[in-house]
C-alpha cells in the first residue's frame, strides 16, 4: 500500500521541478487516486509549457505530390506513379511541425486520462488543453506498449523530461492490451511503473540529502582471474553509497509480494538475494568494506522480511520501507539506514 500523497513526494525527488511553487498545490490537495494526481501534474506542466515556451516543434520528414520542387525529389517514385504526366513531382522534405513524437505521447496520454477515473473539473481542463494539440496525431492505443521512451533531452527540450516521464507512468499504468487486440483500463499504478519510480526516488533522496556519500547507480566490474568477460551480464546497482572505504549497495524492490512461498514457507526472493550477493562480493574484491541491502516496499502482508545476515564476511540486510505513512516517517526510515551503516562507524555525521 502507498499513500497517494507520497507518490507526489516520490515524483518531486525524481524531478526537482515539482518542488517549485507551481506545483505546491499537490502537497495539500486531496486526490482520489494516483491517476487523478498524475493528471493534475500533467495538466499543470503542459499549461506552463504552453505559456512559457510553447509546445515543442521538430522537423518531421514528409512526402507530398507537388507542382513545384520542395525539398528532395523522389525521382524513382515520380516515374513509378507517373506523376510527371500531370506536371507534378513526389518530393521529400522536412516540415517544422508540432506533430513530433513527444507531442503525440502527450496527446495520447491526455486522451487516456480523460477516460479514466479522475475529477470532472480535471477532465474539463484536459479537454481544453487538447485544443493546442489539434495538429498532432494520436498514437495507436493498441501499440502503446511499444513506445520508444529512450528520448534524449538537452537544454532545448529538458522541460519535456518530467512531462514524458509522467506519461510513461500513466500509459504503462492505465492500459492493458488483451490478446484480442482490444484495450482496457487497469487499476493504477502497475508494479513495473512503481518499481521504476521507487528506485529513482530512493537514489534522488540520497543525492539530495547525502551528497557526501556520492550516491549513484554505478556499474560493478566482475572480479575475474583471467579478464575474460565475454558474454557476462552487466552489473549495475540501483543505489551505491560510498564514504571512504565503506560501501553500501542498495537494491530497491517494489513487488506486490515481498517474499516468495516455497513448500508453504515464506522465503526471500531467491534471485534478488543471489543478485545482491554477487554485487557485494565482486565489489568487495576491490578492497572495500562492502555491505548490501534489499530494500522492499512494504506491503500489507503478514510476513515482512526484516533480517540481517553475514555472508562470507559481508553484511547483507533485507528490509522494508513503509510507504503507507506520513512522509516524515519515510524520511526517518531512509535517514536511519545512513545512521546505522555509516554514522555508527564514526565515518559520517548525520
Automatic annotation (TrEMBL):
InterPro entries: McrC (IPR019292), McrC_bac (IPR014407). GO terms for biological process: DNA restriction-modification system. It holds the Pfam family McrBC. Signal peptide: none annotated. PANTHER family: PROTEIN MCRC, TYPE IV METHYL-DIRECTED RESTRICTION ENZYME ECOKMCRBC. This is Putative 5-methylcytosine-specific restriction enzyme subunit McrC.
Amino acid at each position: 500500500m502507498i499513500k497517494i500523497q507520497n507518490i507526489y513526494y516520490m515524483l518531486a525527488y525524481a524531478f526537482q521541478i515539482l518542488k517549485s511553487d507551481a506545483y505546491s498545490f499537490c502537497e495539500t490537495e486531496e486526490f482520489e487516486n494516483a491517476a487523478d494526481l498524475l493528471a493534475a501534474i500533467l495538466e499543470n506542466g503542459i499549461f506552463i509549457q504552453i505559456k512559457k515556451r510553447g509546445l515543442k516543434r521538430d522537423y518531421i520528414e514528409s512526402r507530398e505530390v507537388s507542382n513545384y520542387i520542395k525539398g528532395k525529389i523522389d525521382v524513382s517514385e515520380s516515374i513509378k506513379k507517373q506523376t510527371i504526366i500531370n506536371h507534378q513531382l513526389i518530393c521529400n522534405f522536412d516540415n517544422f511541425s508540432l506533430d513530433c513524437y513527444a507531442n503525440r505521447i502527450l496527446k495520447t496520454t491526455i486522451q487516456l486520462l480523460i477516460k479514466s477515473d479522475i475529477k470532472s473539473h480535471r477532465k474539463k481542463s484536459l479537454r481544453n488543453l487538447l485544443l493546442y494539440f489539434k495538429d498532432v496525431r494520436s498514437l495507436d492505443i493498441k501499440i502503446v506498449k511499444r513506445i520508444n521512451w529512450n528520448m534524449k533531452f538537452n537544454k532545448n527540450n529538458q522541460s519535456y523530461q518530467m512531462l514524458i516521464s509522467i506519461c510513461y507512468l500513466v500509459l504503462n499504468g492505465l492500459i492493458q492490451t488483451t490478446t484480442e487486440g482490444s484495450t482496457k483500463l487497469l487499476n493504477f499504478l502497475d508494479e513495473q511503473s512503481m518499481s521504476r519510480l521507487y528506485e529513482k526516488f530512493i537514489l534522488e533522496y540520497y543525492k539530495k540529502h547525502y551528497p557526501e556519500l556520492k550516491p549513484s547507480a554505478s556499474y560493478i566490474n566482475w572480479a575475474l582471474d583471467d579478464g575474460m568477460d565475454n558474454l557476462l551480464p552487466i552489473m549495475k546497482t540501483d543505489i551505491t553509497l560510498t564514504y571512504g572505504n565503506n560501501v553500501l549497495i542498495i537494491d530497491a524492490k517494489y513487488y506486490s509480494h515481498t517474499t516468495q512461498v516455497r513448500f508453504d514457507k515464506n522465503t526471500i526472493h531467491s534471485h534478488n538475494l543471489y543478485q545482491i550477493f554477487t554485487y557485494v562480493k565482486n565489489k568487495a574484491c576491490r578492497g572495500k568494506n562492502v555491505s548490501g541491502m534489499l530494500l522492499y516496499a512494504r506491503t500489507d502482508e503478514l510476513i515482512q522480511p526484516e533480517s540481517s545476515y553475514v555472508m562470507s564476511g559481508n553484511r547483507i540486510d533485507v528490509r522494508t520501507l513503509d510507504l503507507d505513512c506520513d512522509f516524515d516517517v519515510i524520511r526517518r526510515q531512509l535517514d536511519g539506514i545512513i545512521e546505522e551503516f555509516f554514522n555508527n562507524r564514526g565515518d559520517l555525521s548525520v
